[in-house]
């Protein structure tokens, strides 16, 4: 199990956040105190437990504060019909929430007879962000199914799913290499995700539910360990945001994703860490 609480170093982005949060149009304000005691640039405590589901080729339990997600990776021979004969593989995601992962029971979507738009959006995000990190030609005509099941939700379930799912994917592919099924690890880089937002004109990293639910601006960011953007989802929930605020939010997200990438790499075998360098 790998754990991470408060960051072990302050990045240059903390000074940016402090500068932004020091004033608003009305003048100076008291220092921000988040409900869980974090500073604006702090992640929630992170734990990644590998091989959480022993029957899966790759699996983790990722805990991000009170948000907990199980991610598994299952490998099957064959690909969707549009890829047959191409020599390329496929990575796809599914996402769901236990009924009491939330404060009030949420009915199972299987009982309702259809998936919600939110569920479809999140599982498509999981699949495409992991494909961006995978050498699909190197995978061969195989499909990796990524299943992300939220067992407790307190904000950031999609970003926790992406971060945990990458570790599950890498563990599964490592086992294919160890078994001689693959000649080399078909990964281009690691990916991780976090949320950022503006709440009461403050820039915050890694929003818990009580913050996300009242955000003026809400953003989810996926990046590689090498610092490249994979996906940015940003919306003005209560007010528009400026290009300067957008730049500051992306910088803040990048600082958090670098920490998440270090935690991911500590969980993975030495062979992956060597490959990633």
Brief summary of the model shown:
By secondary structure, the protein is α+β, with helices and mostly antiparallel strands. The protein has helices spanning 12-21, 109-112, 117-132, 136-139, 157-178, 209-212, 243-267, 270-276; strands at 2-4, 23-24, 27-28, 46-50, 58-64, 67-77, 90-97, 142-152, 191-199, 202-205, 217-224, 229-236.
Topology summary:
Blueprint: E1 2-4, H1 12-21, E2 23-24, E3 27-28, E4 46-50, E5 58-64, E6 67-77, E7 90-97, H2 109-112, H3 117-132, H4 136-139, E8 142-152, H5 157-178, E9 191-199, E10 202-205, H6 209-212, E11 217-224, E12 229-236, H7 243-267, H8 270-276
Parallel strand pairs: 7-8
Antiparallel strand pairs: 1-4, 2-3, 4-5, 5-6, 6-8, 9-10, 9-11, 11-12
Helix pairs in contact: 1-7, 3-5, 5-7
Structure report:
The protein is α+β, with helices and mostly antiparallel strands and 277 residues long. It has a single domain (2-276), classed as GHMP Kinase, N-terminal domain (Ribosomal Protein S5, domain 2), CATH 3.30.230. Helix content is 33%, strand content 28%. A six-stranded mixed beta sheet has the order 1-4-5-6-8-7. The chain has a four-stranded antiparallel beta sheet with strand order 10-9-11-12, with helices on both faces. β9 (191-199) and β10 (202-205) form a beta hairpin. α1 (12-21) packs antiparallel against α7, α3 packs across α5 (157-178) and α5 (157-178) packs parallel to α7. The two termini are 22 Å apart.
CATH homologous superfamily heading: GHMP Kinase, N-terminal domain
CATH class type: Alpha Beta
Shape: globular
The H-and-E topology, N to C, reads as EHEEEEEEHHHEHEEHEEHH
What is the beta-strand fraction? 25-35%
